[in-house]
């Protein structure tokens, strides 16, 4: 049942090329230059007339929401707010009929996310769901939606759900960008053809596995770990840290790299591993100077970079390369080695990777 893998988590990490492909299959028609998604096509006016999009989710799905915020604002020029479902539902939020709420949930059963949907519906918002489990409560409660086609996710730590959520939300953003006329067809086509390359590039990112395992051995006994990224890689840093803490029980924090000097830099000494996501597109020089700041305080640097990088390689203790892609699609690749890193560290520490202590696959109580 684990298909030759030791754990469901590793199997599911390796399923990502296929899961992403399954998620855009039949939707992304690059040759025709269209994206077909019934749940959006039938409700295009709702999206186009929206004052803003509010995204609600919990945990890893919330991180996918953060990536989506950057993509929606950058590509479709629609204002987006991303909220923890638990905070949104209890803080008397301003929601009107002109808002669109997108709820993201792998299980489709998360209690807080479900409650946030009900609240938004009461206030007249149009509610769109991005779920993995077909027929789940959230899928039924929303006005429309688009499923991720990740297949069953058994490991408690979410992996392929995250990358397929980002895939669906990217398709949605691209559709809206096209419909709004923000994109000309050349640019649209560039995105569609690059999206088609993503499964093969994820496959290549998975080839880092033996190297990541070696790095895991070096840091498996660290009590702490910091994850830094900017732009599209900021949510990836949060997600990398969450993966490490939930399955290896190592304390980890993700930060936007520039926030380091507002506090966390005080933590850095020769015992602190810092994972920095430093891909070539988007604030590269800025992140290089963040890396220099870490190095001058003797922090250990594990860098995720774009293939062929030279500058970071000179500074970092370890370098993990992922293929180049469009900036907006970067998280689909940079997240892969971070999933592998947490997996190997957890295994080396003897942790129950698929069923970490105190955690449940779906959180049906608040
Ligand atoms: C982390 C993880 C959780 C879930 C969260 C939301 O690996 O799995 O943080 O992402 O509980 O669950 P869903 O997406 O089912 O609503």
From TrEMBL:
The record's catalysed reaction(s) read: D-fructose 6-phosphate + L-glutamine = D-glucosamine 6-phosphate + L-glutamate
Cellular location of this protein? Answer: Cytoplasm
Q: Does the keyword Nucleotide-binding apply?
A: no
- Top-rank EC class of the record's enzyme: transferase
Q: Where is the SIS domain?
A: 43-182, 215-356
EC numbers, comma separated: 2.6.1.16
What are the entry keywords? Aminotransferase, Cytoplasm, Glutamine amidotransferase, Repeat, Transferase
Q: Where is the active site?
A: 361
Q: Does the keyword Nucleotide-binding apply?
A: no
- Tell me one GO molecular function of this protein: glutamine-fructose-6-phosphate transaminase (isomerizing) activity
Q: Fill in the subunit field for this protein.
A: Homodimer.
Q: What's this protein's function?
A: Catalyzes the first step in hexosamine metabolism, converting fructose-6P into glucosamine-6P using glutamine as a nitrogen source.
Q: What is this protein called?
A: Glutamine--fructose-6-phosphate aminotransferase [isomerizing]
Native organism is Arenibacter antarcticus
**Organism lineage string:** Bacteria, Pseudomonadati, Bacteroidota, Flavobacteriia, Flavobacteriales
Q: Which residues of the full protein are shown?
A: 250 to 615 of 615
């Amino acid at each position: 049942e684990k298909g030759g893998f030791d754990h469901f988590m590793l199997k599911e990490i390796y399923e990502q090329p296929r899961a992403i492909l399954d998620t855009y299959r039949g939707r992304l028609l690059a040759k025709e230059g269209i994206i077909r998604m019934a749940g959006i096509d039938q409700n295009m006016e709702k999206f186009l007339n929206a004052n803003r999009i509010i995204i609600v989710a919990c945990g890893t799905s919330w991180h996918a929401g953060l990536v989506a915020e950057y993509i929606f604002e950058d590509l479709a020029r629609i204002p987006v707010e991303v909220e923890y479902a638990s905070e949104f539902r209890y803080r008397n939020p301003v929601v009107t009929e002109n808002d669109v709420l997108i709820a993201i949930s792998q299980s489709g059963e998360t209690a807080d996310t479900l409650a946030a949907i009900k609240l938004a519906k009461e206030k007249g918002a149009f509610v769109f769901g991005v779920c993995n489990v077909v027929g789940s409560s959230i899928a039924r409660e929303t006005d429309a939606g688009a499923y991720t086609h990740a297949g069953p996710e058994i490991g408690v730590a979410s992996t392929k759900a995250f990358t397929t959520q980002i895939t669906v939300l990217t398709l949605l953003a691209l559709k809206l960008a096209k419909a709004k006329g923000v994109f000309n067809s050349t640019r649209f086509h560039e995105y569609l053809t690059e999206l088609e390359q993503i499964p093969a590039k994820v496959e290549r990112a998975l080839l880092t596995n033996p190297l990541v395992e070696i790095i895991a051995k070096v840091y498996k006994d660290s009590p702490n770990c910091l994850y830094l990224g900017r732009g599209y890689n900021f949510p990836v840093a949060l997600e990398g840290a969450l993966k490490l803490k939930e399955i290896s029980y190592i304390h980890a924090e993700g930060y936007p790299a520039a926030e380091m000097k507002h506090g966390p830099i005080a933590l850095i000494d020769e015992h602190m591993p810092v994972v920095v996501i430093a891909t070539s597109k988007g604030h590269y020089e800025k992140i290089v100077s963040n890396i220099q700041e870490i190095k001058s305080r003797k922090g250990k640097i594990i860098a995720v970079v774009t293939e062929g990088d030279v500058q970071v390689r000179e500074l970092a203790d370890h370098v993990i390369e992922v293929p180049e892609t469009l900036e907006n699609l970067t998280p689909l690749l940079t997240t892969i080695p971070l999933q592998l890193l947490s997996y190997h560290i957890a295994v080396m520490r003897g942790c129950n990777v698929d069923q970490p202590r105190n955690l449940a696959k779906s959180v049906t109580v608040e």
